Amino acid sequence: MRFTSKIFASLLTIAAAPALLVAQQKTGDVVDYSLEERLEVPEMVSTRVLDFTGAGFLRMHFAAMDLVPGDRLDVVDGFGRTVQSFQATSRNVWTRLIRYQPTVLILQAGPTPGTRGYVIDRVNIGDPAFGPAEPCE
Q1: In angstroms, rounded to a whole number, what is the distance separating the alpha carbons of residues 31 and 63?
Q2: In whole angstroms, what is the distance from residue 30 CA to residue 4 CA?
Q3: How far apart are CA 55 and CA 127, in angstroms?
Q4: How far apart are alpha carbons 48 and 114 in whole angstroms?
Q5: Each residue of 67-121: pLDDT tens digit?
Q6: What confidence tens digit (pLDDT) does each residue in 25-54 have?
Q7: Read out DSSP for 40-72?
Q8: Sequence-separated (6 or more) residues with CB below 8 Å from residue 106
Q9: CA separation for the pair 40, 44 (Å, rounded)
């Protein structure tokens, strides 16, 4: 799914207020973090905005990602570009490096009934000059 900058700006404005999460950590740290999102109604959309102020990059670790056929989870950077998309259930997955903040998570529920969602348990944030802390596997 591609966003034009105008649509993305509107989405960001609407979504940012209730779900803005801010954290400040040392460069390259992998830190514990807790974010869980669940949808039970088909064809709904959930948007979460994560803003790690001052971070040069971000990687998120999904402890669990439960998607029903037809669902999609997009990781979008601060310029509205999709960095990564998921369409299948997974466990223990790190996202690609996200360089531009804030990061937006968009969970789009397909038409199939069922509970779907994700759990983020760790994030890796820091300065891109140093790269992500290891291990991010």
Answers
A1: 14
A2: 32
A3: 6
A4: 20
A5: 999 999 999 999 999 999 999 998 999 999 998 889 999 999 999 999 999 999 9
A6: 444 678 889 999 999 999 999 999 998 877
A7: -STT-EEEEEEE-TT-SEEEEEEEEEE--TT-E
A8: 1, 45, 46, 47, 72, 73, 74, 76
A9: 9
